[in-house]
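In this section we walk through a basic example: taking a raw amino acid sequence and producing a predicted 3D structure, encoded as discrete structure tokens. The instruction is simple. Fold the sequence below.
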Amino acid sequence: MKIEKLNFSLVRMGVVFYGDYCALKVGTTYNQLDLTIEGFMPMLDKIEKINSMIDKSEKLIKGELKYNCIGENETLITFENGFFRLYAITASVDSNVEIESSDWICLLEKIKEFMLSENQTNRIVSF
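The resulting token sequence is shown next.
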């Protein structure tokens, strides 16, 4: 699936709680993208990790990243012709998602912004 010009006004973010467990939930109009992002959540669950992902993504664009990919095994991100290709085993073994580089960086920034604002409030759940 190739995604061009992601409409950020339709991107929803929330926090899912179950007992002591809590996870960021990102929802778009692309189910495949949602499942893929879910596969990368262990790499996006803290502000420091999001900053690292933004940094690695920018290095990947410039060709400065070792092995020319982010992640390993079941979760890989590569870059080619202006698009990030996200592959997560949770999405499907036969498919992947391609998203424009500017949209990927912007999505990471939006997740970071949401997490920063969420950490400063006492909301239990927000959707």
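Looking at the output, two observations stand out. The beta strands are 2-3, 12-18, 21-27, 70-72, 75-80, 83-88, 97-100. Helices lie at 31-39, 47-62, 101-119. In the next section we compare this with other chains.
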